[in-house]
């Protein structure tokens, strides 16, 4: 398995993150809203946050991004994107498992939202123990999932 690491994002990572989003999520975005290049660039420009994002690397090459928010009562996986060339290799599993463990150490649950059309991601999250707890957004396009710590 590749050596997986996280590094802080920098402003110079903006274009990488946009191209990553297009590669990893473009088909899902297109299925729901249609892909409008300028609208997506504007959305990215508003949301890109190098102070809170991390770049996922494999053997020192940039392959994805991660955004985790730590709240008083839960850990929220706001975004994880891995380039399609690197999907299916256990990288997402390793990162999310680490987040589940980290949340448990904090005495919290891990939560995330996934697009309803992204069945592959839903299957991964379910395999890792997350369960659907709600649907939201226009026409319920997003599914809220939660990993609840076992009591005891």
TrEMBL record:
Keywords: Acyltransferase, Transferase. Residues 4-150 form the N-acetyltransferase domain. Transmembrane segments: none annotated. One of its GO terms (molecular function) is acyltransferase activity, transferring groups other than amino-acyl groups. InterPro entries: Acyl_CoA_acyltransferase, Bact_Acetyltransf, GNAT_dom. This is GNAT family N-acetyltransferase.
